[in-house]
From TrEMBL:
InterPro entries: Acyl_CoA_acyltransferase, FEMABX, PG_Glycine_Bridge_Synth. Pfam families: FemAB (PF02388). It comes from Streptomyces formicae. This is Peptidoglycan bridge formation glycyltransferase FemA/FemB family protein. Belongs to the FemABX family. Coiled coil: none annotated. The keyword Thylakoid does not apply. Keywords: Acyltransferase, Cell shape, Cell wall biogenesis/degradation, Peptidoglycan synthesis, Transferase. The lineage of its organism: Bacteria, Bacillati, Actinomycetota, Actinomycetes, Kitasatosporales.
């Protein structure tokens, strides 16, 4: 197979995405309009005249060397990762180097291992186990193993840190399989606490609606950030995100608002592309936590994803820690209550195209704490 790579229009890119069962929302043309601080372009892979793959490239300039960029394909590209990956990535590297990239960073949407909810819970309870990777995986994807091996052999450098979170997107995620399941199946898969909290929210009269009040969401999100000590994104970011993704597909992004007796107690954002749905952002009030608005929002999003025919509900990143003394373990404990499974992906990889510039960039990032 001889493939060529070249620029495609946003319309061509979107048309290709619409033919796929699952493509990350970070690989849609609309996402380039969200990340305004980066220059974006859509690239296509051609087998002859047929478009057989697509990717969104975000270009990050090098400080004081603006003519060179880091070419970033987050959770992409959307290509056939089961095939001979050199045939796909070699023409990508040639095109990007010719157009000023000093390195490529990509994150193949290919998993390597999964661990069931029961296995994760057993690992947390076992003081001798500190990380997911210390447990045997009941399912290992041979495609993921082969992609990892071929990337390493071709000179790509792994970027995923030990804790699973880095400058890019997490290597470990928590996902709930939906295909072939009913609402009752999903409830049975949850732990007792999650089922009880969902029932409690309904009994307390919590009402979840799909709305457009981004200001109300953002106020609650800022409150959550102050409580949980993280830096919130500005309201303008969410306005841009909703405008761009909704323009591409009116069903692409939704805001869920949970109210109790008129008070906003929780809010969440859901994104869907094809048969894949993502929980992207969440916020909750410190008051009235006992009415379980966050659980009500999650259950509404899971039910809507199931009704839309999705294969997976993606709770996004976790760290691989199972150490009860690690402050990050609370994240996986919350998500494991939904049932589902922990999933390890291939992770992010860099290919230096101009090694001297890449080393200078890497040094710069290390000095500023990445």
């Amino acid at each position: 197979m001889s493939l060529t790579v070249g620029p495609i229009s946003a319309a061509e890119h979107l048309a290709f995405v619409q033919t796929q069962r699952s493509v990350s929302f970070l690989q849609t043309p609309a996402w380039g309009r969200v990340k305004t601080e980066w220059r974006s372009e859509s690239l296509g892979w051609y087998d002859g005249r047929q478009l057989v793959g697509a990717g969104l490239v975000l270009h990050r300039p090098v400080p004081r060397l603006d003519r060179f960029t880091l070419a970033y394909l987050a959770e992409g590209p959307a290509i056939d990762w089961t095939g001979e990956i050199d045939a796909w990535l070699d023409p990508l590297a040639a095109y990007l180097k010719a157009h000023g990239a000093f390195a490529i960073r990509l994150g193949p949407p290919v998993c390597t291992n999964t661990w069931s909810a029961d296995q994760v819970k057993e690992g947390i309870a076992d003081p001798g186990i500190r990380r997911l990777t210390e447990m045997s995986s009941p399912w290992a994807d041979p495609v993921g193993a082969r992609v990892t091996s071929r990337l390493r052999d071709a000179g790509w450098l792994p970027q995923s840190p030990e804790d699973g979170f880095g400058v890019g997107h997490p290597q470990f995620k928590y996902e709930i399989p939906l295909a072939g399941r009913t609402e009752n199946d999903l409830l049975r898969g949850m732990n007792q606490l999650w089922r009880r909290n969902i029932k409690k929210a309904a009994k307390e009269g919590v009402e979840v609606t799909v709305g457009e009040d981004l200001k109300a969401f953002h106020d609650l999100y800022v409150h959550t950030a102050e409580r949980d000590r993280f830096t919130p994104r500005p309201l303008r970011y969410f306005e841009t995100m909703f405008a761009a993704l909704s323009a591409e597909d009116p069903e692409r992004i939704r805001l869920y608002l949970a109210r109790h007796q008129g008070d906003l107690v929780a809010a969440t954002i859901l994104v869907r592309v094809g048969a894949h749905a993502w929980y992207c952002y969440g916020a909750s009030s410190t008051e009235k936590r006992e009415v379980r608005g966050s659980n009500a929002c999650q259950w509404a999003m899971i039910r809507d994803s199931l009704a839309a025919g999705c294969d997976v509900y993606d709770l996004r990143g976790i760290t691989p820690t199972l150490d009860a003394d690690d402050p990050h373990v609370g994240l996986i404990q919350f998500k494991v209550g939904t049932g589902g499974q922990a999933v390890r992906y291939v992770g992010e990889w860099d290919l230096p195209l101009r090694p001297m510039v890449y080393r200078a960039f890497d040094l710069y990032m290390r000095r500023r704490g990445r």
